[in-house]
What does this fold into?
Amino acid sequence: MKLNRLFFILLPALIALLCACTRQQAMQTDSFYAMNTYVSITLPQSEKARFSSIRRYVEDIESTFSRTRPESDLYRVNHTSVTEVSPVCADVLLRAQGAARTTDGAFNPCLGSIIELWDITGKAYIPTEEERTAALAECDPLGYTVEGKTVTKQNPQTLLDLGAVVKGYAAGELLHALRESGIDSALINFGGNVALCGHAPGRTDGWRVGVKNPFLPDEIALTLTCTDTVIAVSGDYERYFERDGVRYHHIFDGSTGKPAASGLVSCAVVCEDGFTADMLSTALFVMGKERAYELWQSGVYDFEALLFAEDGKIYVTDGLLESVQLVPTAQTQAGVPLVLEKLEETF
Ligand code: ADP
Ligand code: MG
It folds into this structure.
């Protein structure tokens, strides 16, 4: 009898608790085009007042790092030998230089001359060996110094290109700001760089994000469940042209001046720091799985990765084994099923 009474007293409280747990926070998404890609920001509806300041931040980043706008910091760096830049630009350039060193030039912030020569999405030109050699002379990955706000290039012809890091950097900074202000659910998609804050509505394990199948980019190969982190993906299917059955894509190997041919077709990197995630997704693509494994193991950067090899194998670092879920029907164009393999020293 007593127990029954207790049950009836507790029942409404239990129901209220259950409702609170399952009540889904209403979310709102703002999308716009910036930095040659679509940006979409999903926030709790109650936070929608933040959309305009986020847009302003993205516009600021774009006007700092644009290679084509004459008023941008990067434009000035590229058109003069010595120039003063904003603190944000100086910071990113310093970090880029550190990354060029750590990745042994696989990430090369000074590849502008090679990138312009090929012009993958423009004139789509296959340069001659002489042209590549001449351009590579301007692409020393450590071809500049930063002292305070002053950037000095060793070779005045060197062109910096930060396309491999700026989107991830911006996504990471936004994630950091949202977390600082106590937001417990947000997703920022910066054209292949996804910053995840807290949990998706109705979930307690973060966000479940689909990663494209590089062989059939309209399809999802797998999902990752993560929280408070940035996922950056670099693939050979993003920007490329084809000639005589060969794909020429936009991620270059600074040691050859050609599109990287490391045996990988896409790399996804999960890292709390957005700059590092984006930088590594490009660098690992150039390095290939053996060097990628060594870098992961060295602990220089704290990250996890998924490496899609051209034979359909997907190499996964330890820390992601629990959070990755392969789509059972995922396959290459030739119909070879995609398979997950733990990335380890088997080579
Ligand atoms: P996306 O721009 O498609 O998101 P990435 O983050 O991989 O892909 O960046 C690729 C861009 O980075 C290229 O379009 C080019 O501007 C630049 N880039 C290409 N190869 C390298 C490299 N080895 N190191 C640094 N930047 C690179
Ligand atoms: Mg990148």
